[in-house]
Each structure stands twice: as C-alpha cells, then as structure tokens.
Amino acid sequence: MPESHRPTMLAVDDDPHVLRAIRRDLSRVYQDKYRVLASTSAAEGLRILDKLRDRGEEPALLLVDQRMPEMTGIQFLDKSLDRFPLARRVLLTAYADTAVAIDAINRVRLHHYLVKPWEPPEERLYPVVDDLLSDWQASYQPPYGGIRIAGHRFAPATHRVRDFLTRLQQPFRFMDVDRVDLPELDDVDPAELPVVLMPDGTVLTQPNYEELVEALGLTASTSRPHYDVAIVGGGPTGLATAVYSSSEGLSTLLLDAYVPGGQAGTSSRIENYLGFPAGVSGAELTRRAVAQARRFGTDILSPVAAVSLRRAGRARMLALSDGREVSAGCVLLSTGLSYRRLNAHGAEQFEGAGIYYGATAAETTSCVDQHVWIVGGANSAGQAAMHFAQHASRVTMLVRADSLQRSMSQYLIDEIEQHPNIRVRLNTRLVAAEGKDRLECVTLHNVLTDQFTTEPAEFLFTFIGATPRTQWLDGTVMRDSNGFLLTGADTYPGNILPAGWDLQRYPLPLETSVPGVFAAGTHARIRSSASRPESARARWLQP
Asked: Is residue 194 domain-shared with residue 248, that is, in the same domain?
C-alpha cells in the first residue's frame, strides 16, 4: 500500500530504548497496513499530529508514555482529543502509575493502559492493538470523493446498480440507508431509492444502465457507418475475436448488452486459462482484453444490444437497442448464455435480495463472516465456493448429483475437499425460499432419504446451467430445439442447403445459416471447427 494511503500509528516516549522497542514490535506486525511513527518528545509528537491534520491524514493509534519531562502522557492525550477524537489512545505506564491511568479513562477517553514491559508482545501487546485497530476501522470513515450509492442493502434495484458498476470496474462506496443517515437524501422520496451520488454533485435516482454510463462519461459512439467485422457479445470469445480482427487492420465493432466480460467476467478465479499459471480473475482478464482490443482500434458499445439482423446485399445490418443501425461485412455472434433460474417456490421474489445468479463481486463484502450457500456442482460453482470460502464463515454447496466428479474438474474437487470451510451436500435439491423483504431461509430435499429440512439462509448463489441468448435471432438464424445456433455441417443435414441460402457453396465451419454470419462460444453448437475462424470470415471482406 502506498505510504501516503496508510493510516498512522504514533508512539511517544522520552526513553529512546523503550521507543525503539515499541516501534520495532509494532512494525514487525503492522507495517504493511500502517505507518509507524515515533518521537522522543511530546512537543514533537504534537507537531507530528498537526502535520497529519494539515495533510488530511488520520492516526489510528496513539501510544504515549505517562512520565515525560515536557508534559505527562495524559496531558498529551488530552491535547490530541480535539485534533483526532477517533484515534485509539493507549497510555504506557509503570506499575506505580496504574491508578493514574484508571483515573484517566474517562477524562481523556483512554482506551487502554499498557504496563511496561510488555514482553512477550504476542500475549501482551498484539491482542490489545488488534482489538483497538478493529474498533477504529469500524468507526472511521475516511473522506471519500468518488461515486456513492445509497439504498437498502437487500433491495434488488440496489443490487443491480452495485453489480453494474462493479462489472464496469468503477470504484464506489455503498451506504445502507437503514444504518446511515445522509443529509443529501433529506429531499429524496424513499420510493426513489437507490440513489447514485456522483462526484460532481449530480444525483441519479433509480438510474438505468444507460444513465449510469452517460453520467460516467463512458458513452461511446460508432466511428463509421460500416465495419469490416461486427461482434455481438463481449465475453472471452467476442473479445478474442475483436483483438484478432482489429490487430489485422480490420475495422471492428463489439456490442454488449450489459458489460464486456460475459459470465467469465464474474468468475472469482479462472485457473485453467492459457497463459495464467497462477490463475486470473474474470474481472482482470476482461480488463486486459478490453484494453488490448481498444489499443488495436476496436469500437466497443455497451450497454447496447443487437435486436435484429438482416442482410442487405453483401452487408449485414444490425438494429441496436438505442435506435441506431450499423452494417458490417461479416458478423460474429457470441452472445453467450443466461443463467437458468431456480425452480424453487418463492425464489423469484428474492432475486437480488439474497438470491444471486453468478458470483457477483458486488456482494462479496456483504458475505464476510456469513454462511454462504451455493447451488450447483460444475466448475463455476466450485470456483465460487473457493472464492467465498476466503471471506465467509462457512460455505455449503447443494448438489443434485451423487458426486462432484460428474461435472467438475478434478483440481477443483481436490481443493474443495481439502478446504475446512466448505461442506458439500450431495443428492440435495433446493425446493423453497422464504423471507419477508429478503431471503431468510431455504427448504432442502434429500432425494435419497426423502427428508425435507428448513435452514436459515441469507446469501445464496446459483450456478445451475444456462440457456443461450438467441431468442432475438428466431426466424433469422437456424437454432436447435434448445436455442443453440447451428453452424457448419449442422446447417445442411443430408446436404440440403439452409432456406434462403443463395450461394453456390455450403456454409463454412462456424458459419450459420445466414451467409457471412458466424457463431462461436457457448451458445453455438459446433460440429466442426477451424483453427483460425477469422480466416474464413475474411472471405466476406474481399470485394
């Protein structure tokens, strides 16, 4: 952490040997998160406090010796009160001064007195300091000039705003209106929550995604009316195609209805992605890919969805959700999947209020020291379990199958089995969710014993499969019975060309039933593949 961003500990003692010892012991444990300052003079110590105040910095802890020549430790702490009332104050005393220290508890709001010597520090110093720092962190609210979100913690609308800004990787501070009084909200109707307070003073009430993007100054425009390549969907497949296409000098447009990254962008850790031997978070992978695509000249529009597709001679026309229309020489469809919803009584009413689809980073901080429930037994569920186990007091996985081996990679199974905070309940279905304004409990069914149990639950994350986002292409591009796009040989069974196909050749690998429109990624059913699908699409870019 940068030096200027760390809170400060200040030790004051006129005995240089004692001062060196306290500074040594504090630095050994706390120097990564705190600056440890020391002074042999009370007057110098007060000057240090004045400098901190002038710079807008806050000391977390003051450790001051009682017997000093210029002033007593109690007098020093008394003078520090008006400067930094939130700082935790510790008086260093000898056994003979304990009565004085006890008397000072109320007078100078003394938090603790520490009798010298404090050896061993592991028993007599660090537990005391740990408790005081924990209290200080809970009460201290550093000045913040960034984006603030005010709303009810478990309101679905609040969750949507928090999740969107998190996926955009925009820092913000969330304030629960049920716990914090905000003068800025005195004139705001509670029905208008959540409210987003921008640094420039702009107040957005119940903003949609487009309003948030505009307020952030992230609204993008197309740089041309026609592109060589248009990509619909900003997951890993779409981003990779954008990098490859634009790096070859092709004008490239990437559209995403939400935020680039797709479902992979919400993954807490991806450990089997090529080139990242230590693993990488979905957010970091997305950040790198977006930066790379933009560096090569890709135009990225989000949140903008494609709503229809049609051919116009050699061009493919995409109608967009914002009313615009763009044309492209070829189109890649990589719209990905939508999480399948829970088939459990009452689950729908708690979406965003205790039930979440995917491992939403926006809720991670809320799950600290909580019991987290995860529904699903595939890799995404396993990755989420490992992620939440770092913060939650306990993670319980609900798996319908009788084994994780059916759908999870072995490396994840091994990690889950070895983690003390994760419990796996096999042969278990979630059948009901209950609560008032938020999720409070779930009913589970063991399919082997036919036993039903109801257990308290506040945070439940689901990973139970997904369905392709291809409804907007119905009647335009061939799909199978599950909605997956057909490509290559699957579009001409029995060597019968697709309806409306007007070329004297069969569809290419990854090409759909519409000439010049390709599909790749999790929403496409691909029988045959090409090592470089962009080489096939390039045929449509030649005059």
From this structure: no
Residue 379, CB half-sphere, CA atoms under 13 Å: how many? Answer: 11
| C-beta neighbour count of 365 within 10 angstroms | 9
Q: Which residue range(s) make up the domain with 27?
A: 3-139
Q: Percentage of residues in the chain with pLDDT exceeding 90?
A: 71
389-409, pLDDT tens digit by residue? 988 999 999 999 999 999 999
**CB under 8 Å to 426, separation ≥6 — which residues?**
399, 401, 402, 403, 404
Mean pLDDT, to the nearest integer, of 171-187?
85
Nearest to 42 by CA among 1, 79, 88: 79
> What is the distance between the alpha carbons of residues 221 and 304, in angstroms, rounded to a whole number?
11
The SS3 call for residue 172 is: strand
Average pLDDT of the residues in 217-238: 94
- Which residue bears the tokens 């990242």? 276
- Residue 96 predicted with pLDDT over 70: no
CA distances from 303 to 123, 149, 257, 321, 401 (A): 55, 20, 5, 9, 37
Query: Would residue 29 count as lying in a domain?
Result: yes
Q: Are residues 83 and 26 in the same domain?
A: yes
Rg from Cα positions in the chain: 30
Arithmetic mean of pLDDT over the chain: 90
- Pick from 90, 116, 139: which residue ends a domain? 139
